[in-house]
Amino acid sequence: MKSKIVVLLLFLCIEMKAQNNAYAKEVISKLSSARMSGRGYVNNGINKAAKYLEKEFKLHGIAVTRQWFGISVNTFPSKASLEINDIRFEPGTDFIIEPASCEIKGKFNIIEIKPSDIISGAADKKLAIVSSNDFLLLHMTNTDSLNDLQKRIITMFRDNLAKDTGHNFAGVIEFISGKLTWGISSQCFEKPWIITNRAFKPCNEYTAVINIKNRYLEDKRTRNIIGYCKGKMKPDSFVVFTAHYDHLGLMGKDTYFPGANDNASGIALMLSLMRYFAVHPSDYSILFIATSAEELGLVGASYYAQYPLFDLSKMKFLINFDLAGTGEEGITVVNASVFKDAFQRLTEINNKEKLLPDIKSRGEACNSDHCPFYRQGVPCFYIYTLGGSKAYHDIYDKAEALSLAAFENYTKLIIKFVETF
Q1: Which of 62, 99, 186, 385 would give a disulfide with 227, using CB separation of 3.0 to 4.6 Å?
Q2: Digit-coded pLDDT (tens) for 131-176
Q3: 74 in helix, strand or coil?
């Protein structure tokens, strides 16, 4: 009889894990689909994602509160094309547009600037004779052999070029050797800047055909989505879960950035916890905050921290989930060295239950949505998974690239951690 019970419990455990992972995959797939247009500010992508989340909140019996705020954002809704010497470069694959770029269209000569030109001063002479028909081709490769001073000179030249208003060049094509990592911007500069890592054969004369269309949006409305599960013993005190649901959106009408790991996975984890606590209430109330405009500089989280709908002093502890879709190598906990007692409880649970292969400690880092709350005195962690897919802020961050290797045990770890309060 005992053996049958053990087998049954094992079967139920496996079945629950399969259901939880299946739900997570469904959430991630929907949020990172082409229909959501990268959850940005073109094609109503961010609003589609918000409506989906509100539906999920309500489906699990969670009343939705919306917190609206305005942003300014530079977008690229239509044209994004580049040809060099009649060779077509694919957006997202071969090049990206610097997020603060303005629009431009035409055929241009290319003036090549190499690292040696910058160090010798020849670059300044080239800048003195450029015209509005010229794009600069700035080489930022083959610098490993340079000394630190030479590298600083090149970096300073690049940074000054990005702010340059004294020369008459049309824009910049920057050639790099690393991966293409995109972003979004609340600014729009006077000149376009294109980044490519696709090598092409040098020749005496370069020409580029460029067509970039931007649209700068002022006071674009977006929203945080908030709900909570009422606590049994201390309903006026909260354990808080946050995750941002926005991503980078579109770069041209055909190139979108899925944002599966960043941060559809974090939203999936938060929703999975919502499903649990809706059925198994904690002693403390559990507050869920899905933030918008994180990619613009933690704007949604900063807005909530400044205008809280639930008093920050009532927040017992906050956990921010971002990049939750892997876990082959465990997790890293930001602020672990700050809130040592909480981190110790977390690691003790993991050591006892053998849930994750490793929990790494990290100090302060203002790199995600926990930061505005932390600055207001709220005890908090930011947790992200380790291992697996390395795709980040690129077109390859897709649902199918995520292993969800630690997802079920990660969820269990957080549930058990909440029980320690």
Answers
A1: 62
A2: 999 999 999 988 888 999 999 999 999 999 988 888 999 999 999 9
A3: strand
Which residues pair with residue 404 across a beta bridge?
none
262 secondary structure, DSSP code: I
What is the pLDDT at residue 203? 74
86 sits in the region (left: phi over 0; alpha: psi -120 to 50; else beta) called left
Residue type, 362: R
Give me 227's structure tokens: 């709900």
Largest CA distance in the chain: 89
DSSP state of 185: B
Distances (CA, A) of 189 to 127, 145, 162, 339: 19, 32, 9, 41
3-class DSSP state for residue 308? coil
- Please list, in sequence order, all residues whose beta carbon lies within 8 angstroms of the beta carbon of residue 88, skipping any fewer than 6 positions away: 81, 82
The answer to whether the beta carbons of residues 351 and 297 sit under 8 Å apart is: no
Q: Are strands 171-175 and 193-196 parallel, antiparallel or unpaired?
A: parallel
Q: How far apart are CA 17 and CA 22, in angstroms?
A: 8
- For Cα atoms 31, 34, 38, give the angle at the middle one, nearest 5 degrees: 60
Residue 60 backbone zone (phi > 0: left; psi -120 to 50: alpha; other: beta): alpha
Token reading at 210: 């460029």
Closest by CA to 80, choosing from 99, 52, 62, 66, is 99
Q: Single out the residue of 241, 268, 395 nearest to residue 327, CA to CA.
A: 268
Does residue 339 register a pLDDT over 90? yes
List the domains of the chain with CATH numbers. 21-75+217-418 (3.40.630.10), 80-212 (3.50.30.30)
> Cis before residue 263, ω within 30 degrees of 0?
yes
Task: State pTM to two decimals.
Answer: 0.94
Which residue, among 247, 327, 249, has the nearest Cα to 291 in the 3D structure? Answer: 247
Burial level of 341, CB count in 10 A (0-12/13-18/19+)? exposed
Angle at alpha carbon of residue 359, lines to 357 and 364, rounded to 5°: 160
Tokens 């094309």 identify what position? 81
Q: Are 333 and 359 in contact (CB under 8 A)?
A: yes
Place of tokens 């490769």: 141
Residue pointed to by tokens 């797939």: 29
